[in-house]
UniProtKB/TrEMBL annotation:
Ranges that cross the membrane: 81-100, 106-128, 185-206
Species of the source: Triticum aestivum (Wheat)
The keyword Transcription is assigned to this record: no
Gene3D superfamilies according to UniProt: MFS general substrate transporter like domains
Official protein name in the record: Major facilitator superfamily (MFS) profile domain-containing protein
Family per record: Belongs to the major facilitator superfamily. Proton-dependent oligopeptide transporter (POT/PTR) (TC 2.A.17) family.
Membrane association type: Multi-pass membrane protein
Phylogenetic placement of the source organism: Eukaryota, Viridiplantae, Streptophyta, Embryophyta, Tracheophyta
Localisation per UniProt entry: Membrane
Record InterPro entries: MFS_trans_sf, POT_fam
Recorded GO CC terms: membrane
MF (Gene Ontology): transmembrane transporter activity
Amino acid sequence: MQGYGMITLASTLLSQRPSASLDNDSSSSPFSLEVSFFYVSLYLITLAQGVGKPCGLAFAADQFDPNHAREFTARSSLFNWWHFSIAIGISFAVIVVSYIQENPGWGIGFGMLCTIMICAFVVFLLGIPTYRLHVPGSDNPFARLGRSVFALARNSSLCVCAKRHHHEDEDVATSMEEARCVLQLLPIWAACLAYGVVIAQIMTLFNK
């Protein structure tokens, strides 16, 4: 939100500066400060997206109880609507926002996006009392995943070299099951690469 506010201000200041003065004294201090302010706002937006996007979907999924049948179904539907909304938003940005920026002005286009972000932030704040906040465990998830994969590999080698025990340690069995669940996600992750390649083209279009 702050980044969009800054880029709206920067775009407005740059658009009000005469083009002739930009060509003649492009190295002057006021213009350099305006351009620096513009790039700081761009990097601030990029930083916010890099931090927020990976957490947004996981935070939304945490609001549903997987042990409740109705909420489990609703959580599955969440992922469909999430990506559908992203696709609609990108289409809106490419078609509508780009037209507004190129014709009425960049400041108006970014100002509209800043207004949308403010409204979204207000809705987020209003929902805080109803959010389910899960306290993370003390165990490092990467270390836990490494132990799970190691337990699965060790058990596989033992099955080949020796007779398997009838009674496995409960922790080892749990680790093996977690490793299997992660490995089963790899084909889904690979299938999503094509979707990621298409989404990456949007940023290329934005730069152009």
